[in-house]
Protein 1
Amino acid sequence: MRVLFVCLGNICRSPTAEAMFRRHLDEAGLAARVEVDSCGIGPWHVGKAPDPRARLAAAERGLDLSALRARQLAADDFARFDYLLAMDQDNLAALEAQRPAGSEAHMGLFLDFAGLQGRAVPDPYYGGDQGFEEVLDLVEAASLGLVAAVRRRLEAGS
C-alpha cells in the first residue's frame, strides 16, 4: 500500500501530513506495510526542507520533519501510489488534470478521511503561527481516519 500527500509546494501541509500519518501507522502497527511520501504540484521548493514554522510546530508535537525534502509531483506517481490525497480543491484539480488514462489510484481530499467532506487543509504559508497549529489538528484527525481505511483495505486484501 502506498500513500502520497499533495499540496502546492511541499513545504508546509503535505510534509506535515506525511509525518503525522507515519506516526499513526507506526502506532497502529502498520508502518511496515504502507509506504508514505509527499510532494508539491509546483517546482518552487524542490530540494528544500519544510518551512521552519512547520518544523517548529510539528516538533512541539513530537514530529520531526527535518529529513524531508520537497519534490514535485511526477507522472509515475499515479502508477506508484494507491492513494493521492490533496490538501485542497486546487491541488485536487491539478492532480485530476495530470492523471493519466487508466490510472486506478484513489484521488481525493485528505480531510474526507476526517469526515470533513469537501474541506481543505488551509495553507498556512502566508499566515501566522496559529495556521500551522490548525494544520496539525486537521491532519491528525484525517490521519486517524486514513489509518482505519488503510487497515480495512489491507485486511480485505489479505
Protein 2
Amino acid sequence: MAADGPASGPVHLPCHFGEWLQGRLGADGPLALVTLTPKGVSVAAWRRLDRGLFCHTIGHGNLPPAVLARFAHALGRSLGGRVQLRLPYPPGLGTGMSTAGLLAIARLTAGAQSPLALARACVAAEGASDPLMFRNPGRLLWAPRLGRELAALPPQPRAHLLAGFWGPPRPTQAADQNYDDVSDLVARWQAGGPLATRAALASESARRCIARRGPLGDPTESLARDLGALGWTISHSGAARALIFAPGHLPPHGISALREAGLRGVHQLVTCGG
C-alpha cells in the first residue's frame, strides 16, 4: 500500500449479522429493522497519509470513488489518505460491511462525528445505512433508508447462533421497498420477553420475507426445526442465515448439518445481549 506518511490504526468497527426483524411499518410506512449484532466481530482499518481519499478492502477490491466522494461531501469534510480494510465477511451478504467500512474511514480521517451525522453521510453515499454508528444498535428500531431511529427497544436477547450464508451476494438496493408489513412483530418485540419469544418473532419475519422475496429452496427453516433451534433469522436483503439457540445449547452436529444443507462459511456466534 503506497503511502506518503506513517500508518495509523488499526481501528475496529462492529458489524451485524442480518436482522431480527425487517419490513414495512404499515402497508405504506417506512422500512424498519432491528439489527442483530454479534459479539466480537468487526472490520479492522488502517490509514496512511496521502493526497486524495482511497480505500482498499483486502481481497475485495476498492470502494468506488463516487461512494467515497459522496460520503466526504455529506460530512462536509475534505477526507484524505489511503485506507485499508480487513473484513470479517465478504461484502454484499447482509453483514454491514459497507456501513462499517465507511465508519472506519470516518474514524481515521474525519475525527469525532455524531452518530446522526455519520448515519446521514452513509445514506448519502449509498442510499441506506445500518445503525452501527450507535453504541447499542440492537436497541434501536432503525429506518435504514432514512438513517434515523424510529423508537427505542429492549436489549436484544442473549443467544448462541449457528451462522452461515446461503444464496448469492445481494447488495442492498436503496430503492427496494418490496417488504412485508411487520408492524405487528415490531409491537410484540417492543414488549420484550424471553429469548424463545423473540426467536419466534425473528422466525416469522424471516418467513414472511422469504415468501415474498425468495430465494426459493432456502433450507434454514427446516434446519432450525431438525436441530431443535428456538428459531432462525436472516439478512432480509442478503445471504446471512442463523439458527437461534439458548446459550450453551448448540447441537454438537450443527455445523456439519448446515454444511450438508449447502450453507457456506458456517461458524458459531454469540449475540451482544443485555
Protein 3
Amino acid sequence: MSALLGQPLIVDLAQWLSTPAGQYVQQWEQEKISSMVANVFGFHAVQIGLPAWDLLEANRIPYKGRSHSYSEAGVLHPAAALYADPENLPFDSQSIDLLILPHVLECSNSPHQVLREAERVLVPEGKVVISGFNPWSLWGLHERIPGLDPIMPVPAHMQVSLARLKDWFKLLSFELDRGNFGCYAPPCETERWLRRWSFMEAAGDRWWPICGSLYVVSAVKRVACLRLVGPEWKRKTKHVHGHTVVTGRHSGV
C-alpha cells in the first residue's frame, strides 16, 4: 500500500493551485522547470503527480507521460492513464531519462524512499526535477504561528527543506545541477495584494534568496565508471630469425 498521505491532502493541493496564491506559485514553477528541462534529451520522460499541470511541455523527449499518484485516485484527468506509487514506481530500473516530482516529497510519509525510487528508475546521467515549499520562508513562518489560518496546502512539518534534500542527494548518487528559490511575496490570498508585493521578487533574489516560499532543483544521477584492476598481461615478443651473412677474405665481397 502506498505510504502517501490520504487523498484529501493531494486533492487540496490540486485544488489550491486554482486559487490566486496557487496561480502565483504555478506560474513561477512553470517558468523555472521549463527552463531546466528544455534541453534534456533521451527517450522517456515522466511526471509523477498533478497530471493536469503539464511540466513537460517545454521538453522535446519523444515519449512523455504524466501520472496520477495512488492518493489522487479521486481526481481523474485524461492526460494521465497511469496510477503510480512514488515510493514504488512501476518502471524498470534505469529506464527513465527525465523524472519530474512536483511537490511529491512533501506529500509522502517516506520522502527518502521516493528519492531512492527516482534513483533506481533513472538511467545513468538521467535527471530528476523536484519542487517543494520552503519551510524557512515567510509562508512557512506563517504556518507556524498559532491561530492563523494556513495559506499553504502542505503542513509546514511535512515540508522538506532544501538543506535536507541536499543531504539526501549526497547519500544517493545524485549531484545537484541547478536550483532556484522564488515567490517572495508575504502570505496573501488575493490577486490584488500579490500584485502589490510583486516588487519583492527582484529584491528577494538579490537580498534574501533562501527565504523564497518555493524551491525548484534539478539533480543528475552519477554512476562511477568501473575499471577492472588485475595483472597486466605480458605480450610475448616474437623473435624474427634472419639470414646470417658471413663476410671474410674469401667471401667475394
